[in-house]
Amino acid sequence: MIAAPASEPLRRFLQVARGAGLKVSAAEGIDAARALDIVGFEDRTVLKDTLGLVLAKTPDEKALYDEAFDLYFKRDEFSTDRAEPEEDAEDSEQDPFSSPSNGSGGDGMGGQGGQSLGSLLANDDRAALATAMEQAAREAGIENIRFFTQKNLYARRILDRMGLRALERDMEAMRQTGTPEGLGRAQFLDGRIEALRDSIRDFVERNLLLFAKGDTEKFREELLKSARLSNIERRDLDRMRILVRQMAKKLAARYAKTRRRRLRGQLDTRRTLRRNMGWGGIPFITVWKQKRIEKPRVMVLCDVSGSVAAMSQFLLMFMYAINEALSDIRSFAFAGSLIEVSEILEKEPVEEAITKIMSLIGFGSSNYGNSFADFEDGWMRHVTNKTTVIILGDARGNRTDPRTDVIGRLSQRSKRIIWLNPEYKSAWGTGDSDMYRYAPFCNLVSVCNTLRHLERAIADILEDAT
Amino acid sequence: MNDALPLGIEPLRSIDAVEQGLSEAGYIANRQISTAIYMAHHLQKPILVEGPAGVGKTELAKSVASWLKLPLIRMQCYEGLDESKALYEWKYGKQLLYTQILKDKINSVIGDADDLATALDKLHSFGDVFFSHQFLEPRPLLRSLQEPAGSVLLIDEIDKSDQEFEAFLLEILSDYQVTIPEIGTVHALVPPIVLLTSNSTRDLGDALKRRCLHLHIGFPDDKLEAKIISSRVPGIDGRLLKQLVSFVQQLRALDLKKVPSVSETIDWAKIMLLLHVSVLDVDMVRDTLNVLLKFEADIESAGKQLAGLTHKARQDAGVA
After folding, report:
1. What is the arrangement of strands in the sheet containing A297-303, beginning at the earlier edge strand?
2. Do residues B173 and B116 share a domain?
3. Which chain A residue has the Cα nearest residue B174?
4. Same domain, B39 and B73
5. Is residue B96 part of a domain?
6. Which domain holds residue B228?
7. Residues B159, B202: Cα–Cα separation, whole Å
8. Which chain B residue has its CA at the smallest distance from A30's CA?
9. Segment (H or E) for A340
């Protein structure tokens, strides 16, 4: 089946849709073009429904799509195109990259068909000005705008394409004449140019929203994912929470399933014989090999004192967001001493729970030895050889007894101990840090101070749960 | 491009025609739903229908089938569903039986062979008689491809199946063909209209989504819901209908574990009809609330606000 070439408005819309955060693959683009062939541009609501069927594949995407569609098709530029939609679809083969080069001369007359910017401004021909602006913007590649810092750059390019430099030269000449007439005219034009600048800036802004909203968000999120969690600003916290939830959901979805999988075709000889003992070993019933994948049981011990608190907060948030991938999770918070916080975290929404925990025990000076001793007294007996113990902390116990003996016993009882330390490796062992004393008892010690680190650490935990 | 389509299905000529046809089959569709059916036919793509339980996802497939007078082939997905249950299976019993019956004939076929090699050669010349269409038990997917006049294939609750099964569906969804190792590739005689439904209990793979049109059916607005109920519960009084719909719509705005869906409104309307109710009153609503709400906690939390909700519903319907 040969797909119709995507018409220009559609191609641009697809770009807008991607900018808005929709995942539009090439195949879906082709489908959109085919669908467009069938319904055409005539009926806006049908068009919206149709493209929505093809492009947006989740409720979230539907919302994004609706927004993008309305924003895009409301633009005046399109409403003029729409007068002859048929033609528009026809000459779509002239793809955007070979767009008419008459305006690319930069400081020439631009693409307004011979009329100079000066006369357009003088006549105050708004419609013609708008068209010229659209055209210049297209030539300047406005759809590639990504960051707000590029606003001035694009505004400048558009002005250039519209022939600002030529106009400025003319105005210079007017001023040179020295006649009051020439000066007055130059001043008049100055005012008009200023107004034009403003409207172009507006226009670029609108386009930035249209084409780059998704990208800017994504960019920001990428930054946040690799920012040190202790440096996260208050205003970004909400966004971080959403991010954590998203990442957790992804992880949970990847590991929640498949606990027991049949390896069909591989006979478990031993169990088959055992099963058929009653018939003298003649295999009436076959037993196949099975792979059992267990969900990890996790105990999390979080240092909630001073500097580590920010990190703990996100770790707890993460763990509770993936709890469907875990069979059992118990969490503990400690600073000077240790308490169990599972119940608080289960009953209340994570944000409130964390504030509550912090107020209960947080922000004191930490005493690792004491806290571990508390753990041994209260909960050591619940640790089995299936338990993964995660300890989050900087291992700075203010020169108190580190009680490595407790950690030693814990490592014997548990499946493994994973220590996540928010400090850089170079700081381990300096000052009151006992990291290297604990390290021999841990199966894994790693630096963990960004969301990305967290995600990787937790993915590892889930992965080795076989 | 449209030559390959079974344009014998004349009713699918326009979106309006689809809407009309569905309503004749007793399914009140909004514009988006009819657009989806129309596009599915013309683009030859399956539709993935998502939405909360009870908004008529499965019903849509049934109505399309009954309207187009095509057989509806339904495949219910569940965990552990595999290709031998979804696509085809060999009729092992028949194969065994036939080998027993034909045992005697073997001698006449290879009787005059001198040695083993010639005997084997002779056997080979008969080809794979036992692995041919006669011994194939078609399961829903294969059956829908083999329907001579086309069919409506409903793959229900795809989110309940395993991820592997989803991958297995890709071939049939994109090319309307399946590959059976012993026989070869089977193409659809007429591409069926395929609907997949999902309650979003898990996220479906991108590959599957890419191959489908995506239709999200949400709860209908009050006008549409009134239309649906009057078509499903004929004989219901107009004023009662307005009250019921207004009440249910308000209920959906509450913070509930599971909000009532259209099918529940229909059940409720039937009950009200049976009880000869014409004006909603609080006690009546309280007694029948378990039809709409399925969780004790929901009934409790809505129970506190019943008086207000009922009053508002009566007001909306213009009943004093």
Report:
1. A338-340, A328-334, A297-303, A387-392, A416-421, A444-447
2. no
3. A27
4. yes
5. yes
6. 222-316
7. 6
8. B43
9. strand A338-340
Give the distance from residue B273's alpha carbon to the nearest chain A alpha carbon, in angstroms: 36
Residue B140 lies in a domain: no
- Kindly report, residue by residue over A389-435, the tens digit of the pLDDT: 989 888 888 888 888 899 999 999 998 898 988 888 888 888 888 89
Q: Which among B35, B202, B206 is the nearest to A46, CB-wise?
A: B35
Give dist(CA B311, CA A269) in Å, integer. Answer: 71
Domain end marker among B216, B233, B251: B216
B175 and B61 inside one domain: yes
Is B255 an 8 Å CB contact of chain A? no
B191 and B226 housed in the same domain: no
DSSP-derived secondary structure letter, B13: G
Nearest chain B CA: its distance from A254 CA (Å)? 10
- Residue A409 CB partners (closer than 8 Å, separation 6+): A376, A380
Residue B142 lies in a domain: no
What's the number of CA atoms in the CB half-sphere (13 Å) around residue A455?
A: 17
**Do B156 and B283 lie in a common domain?**
no
Same domain? For B73 and B92 the reply is no
Residue A396 DSSP symbol: B
What per-residue confidence (pLDDT) applies to A91?
37
Task: Kindly report the nearest CA distance between residue B184 and chain A, in angstroms.
Answer: 23
Q: Which of B216, B251, B268 is the last residue of a domain?
A: B216
Q: What is the pTM of this model?
A: 0.63
Report residue A153 as tokens: 């750059």
Q: Give CA–CA dist A376/B75, Å, rounded.
A: 54
CATH code for the domain of B43? 3.40.50.300
Distance CA A140, CA B287 (A): 68
Cβ–Cβ gap A34/B203 under 8 Å: no
Structure confidence by residue, pLDDT tens digits, B142-192: 999 888 888 999 999 998 888 778 888 888 888 888 888 888 888 888 889
User: What is the architecture, at CATH level 2, of domain A297-463?
Assistant: 3-Layer(aba) Sandwich (3.40)
Q: Examine residue B139 and state whether it is found in any structural domain, yes or no.
A: no
Q: Which of A28, A38, A53 sits opposite B210 (nearest CB)?
A: A28
For B4-28, letters b (16+ CB in 10 Å) and e give eebeebeebeebeebbebbbebebb
CA distance A71 to B242: 36
Residue boundaries of the structural domains of chain A: 8-93, 102-225, 260-292, 297-463
CB-closest option in A38, A54, A62 to B42: A38
Least Cα distance to A416 among A445, A395, A373 occurs for: A445
Structure confidence by residue, pLDDT tens digits, A207-242: 777 776 666 677 777 777 777 766 666 667 777 777
Distance between CA atoms of residues B223 and A64, nearest Å: 26
Shared domain for B76 and B95, answered yes or no, is: no
CA separation for the pair B207, B198 (Å, rounded)? 15
Predicted confidence band at A265 (pLDDT cuts at 50, 70, 90)? low
How many domains would you assign to chain B? 3
